[in-house]
Every structure is written in structure tokens, then in C-alpha cells.
Specification:
The protein is mainly α. The chain is built from 16 helices and eleven strands. The chain folds into two domains: 1-96 and 311-317 and 352-505, no CATH class; 158-307, no CATH class. Helix 4 packs across helix 5 (173-185), helix 14 (414-427) packs antiparallel against helix 15 (435-456) and helix 14 packs parallel to helix 16 (477-492).
Length: 505
């Protein structure tokens, strides 16, 4: 990264990242070029490492593509090979980057960054939607292929909270409503009771049941609430309430909406993501606001009684023998190498953990870790003003102060830094926290930002982790960009109040 003045350093690092992505990181491959950002870039050439891999890469029985070998860089520790976007774009990995671009236009008074973000969303909505299902080529396991102008992989699973409904509904309300409808029509294996699988086919209808994670139900509820705002169609409210009953085990009406129970039993879930998203959805449906929020408050009380300080657990995925053989064939020696580094047992997956980072700093794909859990509790505090949530957030922040900055950074993700910076800065402006502690939080955020710029910065972008020679959006560079803008505002633009990172749920 180039040298900047102290006063504007964090703004300029963030702006340089965005400028570099706009200039060198967009879709300039295949027959149709677009403003979409690449999910993986070589940091020397600022281009896709191998845009034309052999047909063998695309062979799959599950719909998920294992992007390892074939000239692609080694996935960072914590990233599974089938969750990468090696040939194009995954919007859900760029959400905080797009939000940062809108804020940059506010800071500069110009429209360049906002115009690019608008163009990105327009191309994405108009080109990356399945004609058959209405699902978008994005999420946990799939992306958009720049070279072949089609979906990369065929398994859709929502990954993050989507914040751009106003934009996409203004672009094409029909397509935007299809996105919401797809989460019902293409995912719900039993629509009578709201039972679904979080995984579904992008290319054709193939629904299932029995994997209706409460977290994902929350994402769908949020989509339906926004669809209701745009359309005023009561079916979206009905869908929300069906999911609330099926995922919380609580009836909202004297007669249950679960019209065909059979062997299906509603889940009695206290999932924090589900509670947070029901709360926000209630704001968009005024005549249901009181009832939905009352239910969430009851769930809050139950959760505090059961586990008032539950620690998030890192994801521990396991790899089958067949998967091990496939990966070893494509990338000889990698399993042995990573087991030696990470200390995993012979039956464990090489991509699940770092041996150099403490649990406070280690992340794995599919888990936002301790800092992400703290940010979600911060959202719940801001929603409810319940001081118990704030105490949980403060306790987690204090653990970071006690442990200090990570000593070894080669497995550190940009997301880990971005989330902690955002957490510290948000706490530093809470009135109920002692002034001396606020100062410590702010100082920690600045120290971590300085370390992160040094560790991750290369050729205008950020490394995928502290030792990588490539950029990979999956590890959360967008969170670090946002956090640096948040830090800039806390120092130089206190009239601008930037919210904390609130999509990694």
C-alpha cells in the first residue's frame, strides 16, 4: 500500500482498494464484460489465476465444484474448496464492499462509486438469475462464471443478510420479487408446514425437507418482509408466519398456520439470527409488529435463562475418504502438508482450523466466529436496548483487550480484523460504557487497523490471509474495507455515524 497522511490514511487505503477493484478486478473475460467484481485474483497480475481450466474441474455429482488444483492458489485455512468463486463473482462476498462504495460517494460528493455499485447490482439482477427457479447465482456454494457467462456450480444456499432491496426493486421489480418467491417455491419441500432444505438446485426445481436451519429461515423471512413492502401482497406475511411457527414452535394465532402437521414437529429454536431477523422484519409489517416482537422478546428471555453467555463454536466440517482421495489427486501432498501445519487428526478435514490463531481470532467459512457473534449481540442490543446484550458484547471485546493483537498472522483473515475493528469502534460510542474503556477500544481498533494494513496490503488489494499471494473475497476483505471507513469517520468525520458490520449472521 502507498504511504498516506496520518489523518486520511484509513480512508485512502479503503478508497485505493475500491479503485483497484474497479480498474482491475471487474469482469473483463468472456464475450460479455461487466462491472461485477472477481472473487479470486492473483495479486501480481490482478487477474483470474486460470480462467480456462480443463473440463475435469466442472465434473460434479453433488452440484458443488471443488476448486482446488488446476492452477488455482491453495484455499486459505478455513475455506472449503467448494465454497470458492475461482472463475467469477459471488455477490454475497461483496456486500460490505458495495455498502462501502455507496458511503464513499457520500464522502467524496461524487457519484463514481455509487454509480459502479448500481451498475453491479443491475447486471447481477438482470443476468445472474436462473430462468427456471428465480434463484441467483450466489451464496454459499455457487457463483457466476465470467468466462462461460453462466452459473458456476448448481447448489444455492443463502450466506449473508441482503441489504440492497430498494436498489434491486427499483431496477426490475418483477425479477426482484422472483428472488423472494424462489426462496419459497424452489426451497420449501413442504410448504404446508414451512419445512425446507437450505440447499436447492439453481438450474431446476428440486426441493427437499429436513434441513430447515433456523438461521436460513431468518434470511427468508427478511426477504419476504421486503417483498411485502414492495408488493403489499399478503402471501408474504403468511409465509413469514408459517416459518415463525415452524422454526420457533410458537403459535401466532389461535389456529396454527401449519395446516398439515402429520409427523412434522415444529422446531423450538432460540437461534439469535432468527430472532434478529424476525425483529427487523416486524418493522416492515406494521400490523404484525407488536405480535412478532412480543414473541421475540419471549424467546430472548428463554435464551438468557438457558445460556446467558453461550460461546460460539467454530465450524468443524469433516471430509469423507472419497473427498480426501479426490483432493489428493488434484493437489498432491496438500492434505499431509496442512495436517502438519494445523495439527488435525487423520480423519479431520484440513480446511477447518488454524493452529496458529487462538479461538478469538480464528475463522472458518460458515462461521463468523466470536467477533461475529458479538456484532450480532450488538445488533440485538440496538434493536431492544436490553443491556444484557450489551454486556455480552462488552465481555467479548474485553477478551480481545486481554489477549491483545494476534502474534502470528499468516492464517488471519481480513474478516477477523474487520469485525473486531467494527466491534471496538461501535462500543466506543456507547454512552453507558466508561470513558477510559472507550479510549482503550478506540486505541485497539487503530492498532489492529495498522497491523492489518501491513499484513494484508498488496498492490492495492488485500491478501486472502496473512500469508497468501492472492485476493479471495470469501475471507472478508469487504469487512476490512468497511471497518477502515468506520475508523476514518470516528477520527475525522464524527458527523457521520457508520453502523457496525451487520450482515455476517
Amino acid at each position: 500500500m502507498p504511504a498516506f497522511s496520518a489523518a486520511g490514511r484509513y480512508l485512502e487505503v479503503a478508497r485505493t482498494f475500491v479503485d483497484t477493484m474497479m480498474a482491475r478486478g471487474t469482469d473483463r473475460y468472456g464475450p460479455t464484460h461487466s462491472p461485477l467484481f472477481a472473487g479470486l485474483l492473483d495479486l501480481e497480475t490482478l487477474s483470474l489465476p486460470n480462467p480456462n481450466p480443463p473440463d475435469e474441474l466442472f465434473k460434479t455429482r453433488t452440484g458443488q465444484i471443488r476448486s482446488i488444483g488446476f492452477g488455482f492458489p491453495n484455499p486459505p485455512v478455513g475455506v472449503r474448496s467448494w465454497d470458492r468463486a475461482p472463475l467469477g463473482n459471488n455477490l454475497e462476498h461483496d456486500i460490505m464492499l458495495l455498502k462501502a462504495m455507496y458511503r464513499l460517494s457520500e464522502f467524496s460528493g461524487g457519484k463514481k462509486y455509487a454509480d459502479h455499485a448500481d451498475a453491479y447490482l443491475r447486471f447481477w439482477l438482470l443476468n445472474c438469475q436462473s430462468p427456471a427457479t428465480g434463484l441467483m447465482a450466489t451464496g454459499e456454494h455457487m457463483s457466476w462464471d465470467f468466462v462461460r457467462e453462466r452459473n458456476f456450480a448448481n447448489v444455492h444456499e443463502t450466506f449473508r443478510r441482503f441489504p440492497f432491496h430498494d436498489q434491486i426493486y427499483s431496477i426490475d421489480p418483477y425479477r426482484a420479487l422472483r428472488v423472494a418467491d424462489a426462496l419459497w417455491l424452489a426451497k420449501m419441500g413442504n410448504k404446508k408446514v414451512g419445512d425446507f432444505s437450505r440447499h436447492s438446485n439453481y438450474e431446476s426445481y428440486k426441493t427437499a425437507v429436513g434441513a430447515a436451519f433456523p438461521r436460513h429461515a431468518g434470511f427468508y423471512i427478511w426477504e419476504y418482509a421486503n417483498a411485502y413492502v414492495q408488493s403489499r401482497d399478503p402471501k408474504y406475511v403468511n409465509r413469514i408466519e408459517t416459518l415463525i411457527e415452524s422454526r420457533t414452535g410458537r403459535q401466532l394465532h389461535p389456529e396454527s398456520l401449519l395446516v398439515q402437521r402429520g409427523s412434522f414437529e415444529p422446531e423450538k429454536s432460540l437461534a439469535l439470527t432468527l430472532r434478529a431477523l424476525i425483529w427487523d422484519a416486524a418493522e416492515l409489517v406494521p400490523d404484525r409488529k407488536q405480535a412478532w416482537r412480543k414473541l421475540v422478546q419471549e424467546l430472548d428471555e428463554e435464551a438468557f435463562k438457558l445460556q446467558p453467555e453461550r460461546e460460539p463454536q467454530p465450524v468443524r466440517s469433516r471430509m469423507s475418504r472419497e473427498d480426501q482421495q479426490t483432493i489428493e489427486k488434484r493437489f498432491p501432498g496438500i492434505l499431509k502438508h496442512n495436517r502438519a501445519i494445523n495439527g488435525t487428526d487423520p480423519n479431520a478435514s484440513w480446511y477447518t482450523r488454524s493452529a496458529s490463531l487462538s479461538p478469538q481470532w480464528a475463522l472458518a467459512y460458515g462461521s463468523s466466529g466470536h467477533s461475529g457473534a458479538a456484532l450480532l449481540n450488538l445488533t440485538r442490543f440496538q434493536q431492544t436496548k436490553d443491556q444484557r446484550f450489551l454486556r455480552l458484547v462488552e465481555q467479548q471485546a474485553d477478551r480481545y483487550l486481554e489477549e491483545g493483537l494476534p502474534k502470528a498472522t499468516f492464517d488471519l483473515w481480513p474478516r477477523a480484523s474487520g469485525q473486531v475493528i467494527s466491534l471496538m469502534l461501535s462500543l466506543a460510542r456507547e454512552e453507558s460504557i466508561a470513558s477510559n474503556k472507550k479510549e482503550r477500544y478506540s486505541a485497539f481498533a487503530r492498532d489492529l487497523a495498522d497491523l492489518s494494513i501491513k499484513v494484508f496490503g498488496k498492490n492495492g488489494l488485500f491478501r486472502a490471509d496473512g500469508s497468501a499471494e492472492h485476493y479471495e473475497a470469501v475471507t472478508g476483505a469487504d469487512d476490512l474495507v468497511w471497518a477502515l471507513l468506520q475508523l476514518h469517520c470516528s477520527i475525522n468525520r464524527q458527523d457521520v455515524r457508520m453502523e457496525h458490520i451487520d450482515v455476517n449472521w
